[in-house]
Amino acid sequence: YEYIFVPIFDNDKNVVLVAGSTRDITSRKQFESQKDDFMGIVSHELKTPVTSIKAFTQVLQNRFARAGDEKATVLLGKMDAQINKLTALIGDLLDVTKIEGGKLQFNEDFFSFDELVTNVVEEIQRTTNKHNIEIQGKTQKTVHGDKDRIEQVIINFLTNAIKYSPHSDTIIVKSSYANEQVTLSVQDFGVGIPPERLQQVFERFYRVSGNETIPGIGLGLYISAEIIRRQKGSIGVESEPGKGSTFYFSLPA
Ligand code: ADP
Predict the structure, then answer these.
(1) What does pTM read for this prediction?
(2) Atom 4 in ligand 1: residue holding the nearest Cα
(3) What number does the ligand 1 atom closest to the CA of 244 have?
């Protein structure tokens, strides 16, 4: 049930009555859960064919490269990049289904935080010609947690920083350690986020209006927040419209 209460005031602003109503939301909940099931089934079914298309594309790419056909190799490279985007999208949909069903699981790794940050930055730097990603600071700490999932959060921060700063070329990645926590922040000098939207960006399917020309479906930060929360960390953002944004997370080290 959903409860709504509204106070009614007299002329002296004293509450004279509280009007209330209840609404049965069982059918809405059922509909939402069916929608999640549907999303889960569809994304699961999409995964297998997309994985084989990727494998075939790579076989073709190698053949054309060996034969010296540069044009075909470049085109197949572009195809591969699009397949990667599709794979990431399907992965996000599957993650959301897992989160909603309480089935998102975490591995327990021990890993060097600085090494992870350097590797992810190098990987993402290769995907952009325009932006220069600068690393500042070191933690020299080992983190206990799911390395792949934490990598996923860093990738999400970095790809967002690139996407939402089309007219600037610098991204700053800062690592630090204090109070038994490692903190990573990713700063861009892009479009920024209005103050009243700052908390909503972590909600499922939420996108700030005005950014519709930039591709995305509003799941990355929702998944990132869940990953950090489940590993006893914290996540947040500071931003100024037109100046840029800094997304950060902290984790126990
Ligand atoms: P997506 O990028 O696919 O829309 P996200 O969940 O990663 O989904 O982000 C949610 C929303 O938060 C984005 O649609 C965008 O409006 C806003 N946002 C995220 N990162 C940034 C950023 N670095 N700068 C400005 N806005 C951002």
Answers:
(1) 0.87
(2) 218
(3) 24
